[in-house]
């Protein structure tokens, strides 16, 4: 039987894991039955037998032997006189099996078959990849950095499949070199130009959730449940957890003895601060916990408007707002509320103060916004802090801070 050098095509099948043998046989059979239909008009009386190990195949034609002159369907029947020319022992009524030579299809048809087969294998590989990673969305995988570009990183998994880690899915402090192995979560599988693109992420809340699941056996076992995670990648994260076993402290279990469990995760996330809090349906208590590390004096909660006014001691305001406003932003995401922070001056003598916005003609708006971002929305709240502290908490230059303080002090001197 003439081989048409299909060994390379079969080798492609073997390299694509998870393409099972029956699927392989079916694809090859379909390709050659298409050739048979083009040549004979039907494939009903043909058997295609694939030898996957040798990389070749055989095609047999089946016809029933009938009396001379009684042939009604040439594809399914053969006259007795023609049958005995092939094998003298044949008799009327028997089945005649005849080998169809591949070369009989012609060089052009054979080439087309090989191209079709290669295309079908390629499609199968894509489908296998889509299914494999479609089933792994939300899982952590290890992959090797193959190429680093400005907007994305190309990685290879253990089977050599290409994966993409976009810049937008990288932690700002991430820096990777070719050959490094990195961990990321499978975010989604897209199809671009009919090719699967596997997108990874290190900024997704699910990445932190999976890291916790790896480090905290109680989460893996379902004794502790992660209710919600909010992140500002590389800066801060808040994780609300709940225990289904009263004997287990969910926060303590997640943090570990002396922070043993959480430290590894913090390092993986480039020193991202992680606040683990006890979840509760008591909204006021949840708000207090969400604004950790700040301590709230009192609050006015409006559930209908999804809004809360929070009152804190002056020294707690900047803690509630956090660096670059990250803490309050995450607290709002965690509670699904709009949170406004106010100073609680109860019990202190009323002191003359001026809103920072009143100085917009002398101080640039962006400077005022930066001061308000850390909770300094009045003149005295700025003056109460040292230049060093303001420089540490804001993105303002020391010279700018000193100029602002002079403007504010001058206003009080007038009074």
UniProtKB/TrEMBL annotation:
<comment type="similarity">
    <text>Belongs to the NusA family.</text>
</comment>
<feature type="domain" description="K Homology">
    <location>
        <begin position="233"/>
        <end position="295"/>
    </location>
</feature>
<dbReference type="InterPro" id="IPR030842">
    <property type="entry name" value="TF_NusA_bacterial"/>
</dbReference>
<comment type="subunit">
    <text>Monomer. Binds directly to the core enzyme of the DNA-dependent RNA polymerase and to nascent RNA.</text>
</comment>
<dbReference type="InterPro" id="IPR058582">
    <property type="entry name" value="KH_NusA_2nd"/>
</dbReference>
<dbReference type="InterPro" id="IPR009019">
    <property type="entry name" value="KH_sf_prok-type"/>
</dbReference>
<keyword id="KW-0804">Transcription</keyword>
<dbReference type="InterPro" id="IPR010213">
    <property type="entry name" value="TF_NusA"/>
</dbReference>
<dbReference type="InterPro" id="IPR004087">
    <property type="entry name" value="KH_dom"/>
</dbReference>
<dbReference type="InterPro" id="IPR015946">
    <property type="entry name" value="KH_dom-like_a/b"/>
</dbReference>
<dbReference type="InterPro" id="IPR025249">
    <property type="entry name" value="TF_NusA_KH_1st"/>
</dbReference>
<comment type="function">
    <text>Participates in both transcription termination and antitermination.</text>
</comment>
<keyword id="KW-0694">RNA-binding</keyword>
<dbReference type="Pfam" id="PF13184">
    <property type="entry name" value="KH_NusA_1st"/>
</dbReference>
<feature type="domain" description="S1 motif">
    <location>
        <begin position="136"/>
        <end position="203"/>
    </location>
</feature>
<keyword id="KW-0963">Cytoplasm</keyword>
<dbReference type="InterPro" id="IPR003029">
    <property type="entry name" value="S1_domain"/>
</dbReference>
<dbReference type="InterPro" id="IPR036555">
    <property type="entry name" value="NusA_N_sf"/>
</dbReference>
<keyword id="KW-0806">Transcription termination</keyword>
<feature type="domain" description="K Homology">
    <location>
        <begin position="304"/>
        <end position="364"/>
    </location>
</feature>
<dbReference type="InterPro" id="IPR012340">
    <property type="entry name" value="NA-bd_OB-fold"/>
</dbReference>
<keyword id="KW-0889">Transcription antitermination</keyword>
<dbReference type="Pfam" id="PF26594">
    <property type="entry name" value="KH_NusA_2nd"/>
</dbReference>
<dbReference type="InterPro" id="IPR013735">
    <property type="entry name" value="TF_NusA_N"/>
</dbReference>
<protein>
    <recommendedName>
        <fullName>Transcription termination/antitermination protein NusA</fullName>
    </recommendedName>
</protein>
<dbReference type="Pfam" id="PF08529">
    <property type="entry name" value="NusA_N"/>
</dbReference>
<keyword id="KW-0805">Transcription regulation</keyword>
